[in-house]
Amino acid sequence: YWTVKDHSVVVPEGGIPVVRNSPEWFARLRTAKYMIVNMYQPLFHPDIDGQVIIETFHGYPFKQMGRPHWVNMQFSQARVESYVRRAKEWDYLVSPARYATPFLTRDFVYDGAVLEIGYPRNDVLQSDQAAEIRAATRASLGVSDSQTAILYAPTFRDYLSEDDHRASMGDFFDAATLSQTLGPDYVVLIRGHAFHARTSERPETADHIVDVTDYPDPADLYLAADTAVLDYSSLRFDFAVTGKPMIFLVPDLELYQDTRGWLLDYPPTAPGPLLRTTAEVASAISRLDEVVEEYAVAYDTFRKEFIDLEDGKASQRLVDAVFVPRGDAPALPG
């Protein structure tokens, strides 16, 4: 069963959609043997005896998160306590990498079982279906085989937020200028953060500029793209599984660090040029082969340091650890 906001949401083959807050949804929450979440189970959900909750998270740890972030955002004590309580009810926490585990357990105040296995959601990026998904996604977005697809996928800024779940995208990136500079052989795909999607704002589209903020599965977009323009989003860790070049548009680098903060030094986690303007982005993309060569060592080091568990087999390791009888489960890596 898959939780969906409405029946317009397509779930994977074999899945059964259940609309959030419907009677059936409440019934499934109560009776499901396993619950897989990427943030928190609902506030009202009780700790049900025999139910197994698997926390997969929704991004690689990089930005300030968990208790330090809640305190920084001045969340109420009751709200913080509710997060801590729900974390204690997780039976398994999926960690994508060795570096990530201590951050996740510390900042989310979790002392239960950790599965350090990589992210199951990224397996598709190295699957036998990857080429087929790439072709189908590009076709659905109007990107021809001869065109270069550029994915722009920024994170939200706390200092541009309306509240703690909505934010303006800002004007850091000028898609029209980039498109005009590079010409018709390039298509710009703009993927707003979930916080951006909850506002009434949407990027302006035109020939060769496509708003993919509401596209259901970002993994399809990673496969469809030929390069990405990113910033502080943990999406860069996922995109790096593809091995495709990344460019970083970070005009507010110092301000972002001061207002949000991060867990790691930023440059080693951004294996590409750190740029300030759209014009610089256009220049970098126009000489992409040179950029790839210039940052090859940094990219390779990044992949070894942060995403070495992303081998396309994380889902199998999760199944082996949780769903296979204990005596038959193979040992996890590391």
Textual characterization of the structure:
This protein is of the alpha/beta class and 334 residues long. It has 2 domains: 32-118 and 311-328, 3-Layer(aba) Sandwich (Rossmann fold), CATH 3.40.50.11820; 127-306, Rossmann fold, CATH 3.40.50. It is built from 14 helices and 12 strands. The strands form 3 sheets. It has a 6-stranded parallel beta sheet, sandwiched between helices. A 4-stranded parallel beta sheet has the order 3-4-5-6, with helices on both faces. A two-stranded parallel sheet has the order 1-2. The longest helix is centred in the N-terminal third of the chain and has 12 residues, at 77-88.
Mean pLDDT: 92
Fourth CATH level, the homologous superfamily of the largest domain: CDP-glycerol glycerophosphotransferase, C-terminal domain
Taken in chain order, the helices and strands follow as EEHEEHHEHEHEHEHEHEHEHEHHHH
CATH structural fold name of the largest domain: Rossmann fold
Q: Report helical residue fraction.
A: 25-40%
Anisotropy-based shape: globular
| SS content category | alpha/beta
Strand neighbour order, sheet with most strands: 9-8-7-10-11-12
The tally of domains stands at 2
Q: How many helical stretches?
A: 14
Proportion of residues in β-strands: 5-15%
CATH architecture of the largest domain: 3-Layer(aba) Sandwich
> How big is the Rg?
20 Å
